[in-house]
Amino acid sequence: MDREWGSKPGSGGAASAQNEAIDRRERLRRLALETIDLAKDPYFMRNHLGSYECKLCLTLHNNEGNYLAHTQGKRHQTNLAKRAAREAKDAPALPQPNKRKVNIRKTVKIGRPGYRVTKQFDPETKQRSLLFQIEYPEIEDNTKPRHRFMSSYEQRIEANDKRFQYLLFAAEPYEIISFKVPSTEIDKSTPKFFSHWDPDSKMFTLQLYFKLKPPEANKPQSVAAANGTLPSQPPPPPPLQGLAAGSRPPPPPLPASLPPPPPMGNGPRPMPPGGAPPAPPPPPGGSGAMANFTPGNQVGRPPMLPPQGFPGQQMQGQVMRPPPPPPNMGQ
């Protein structure tokens, strides 16, 4: 009898360990073909001989089922773990941003709260202030209202305007309300900026003061004034309209600070209409009484030089003599 013991009649005998392994691999191959797409496997390659290779383990397989059975084995899984560890070690360690996860509560809103806004002015400090009174009669137990300032560039409801900012109030289960206030710096000092929550009357109070803007007169002086230099003179006035072509405008009036002209020998002469000063008189001729006059030496005065004429003019009848030597005061 070539039939093994323990099997039923007509069953062909019990399967050996080799037959069980072949059957198990076949079942794994059919299961892998249904669930795994070989086109997306980076290590699957078909060579020119028609067989299949695993580029990770460098193994050769006769068919796709044999390769899929290999991918589920211990050798392939170990090589995958080693490859992942090596890639993680070689990759640069980038700092991960610390993202704070905020869980948003989904509650049913019951509407907007009642509010009252009062404008105030301090006559002593010339500051303007706002007083907000928000009523939350149906606020949740052990809950306190919250507030924050929002820039015009954070919101998505209105167009961005740098002249304004928004003050938000929030308390569950009421809707969030906001107030549009000027974008002026808030005075955060303790007596001027405060908030208070009254749990008995269910009213939240907030008061804020705006800082004063610096006046225009307090601007720093220019660099020229700081260095002590005077600013440049204003440009001359434009020419008068209605003058004929080629004519000269009348001269500007002389300022009162200029000294008067020195008097002449024969009396002051009027200014010619052209505005130019009069020409000096010509030197005396040779026939006058002063032709041969030589100034004498006076004690304590330097010798006088002989009169000279203008370039292009010649002295007529006048004899040029050198001045005498100065007297010897030491003898």
From TrEMBL:
Low complexity: compositionally biased ranges: 310-320
Keyword Transferase on entry: no
GO biological process entries: spliceosomal complex assembly
GO annotations of cellular component type: catalytic step 2 spliceosome; U2 snRNP; U2-type prespliceosome
Keywords noted in UniProt: Metal-binding, mRNA processing, mRNA splicing, Nucleus, Spliceosome, Zinc, Zinc-finger
Keyword Methyltransferase part of the UniProt annotation: no
Pfam families assigned to the protein according to its UniProt record, in alphabetical order: SF3A2, zf-met
Sample GO molecular function, one term: zinc ion binding
PROSITE patterns: ZF_MATRIN
Protein name: Matrin-type domain-containing protein
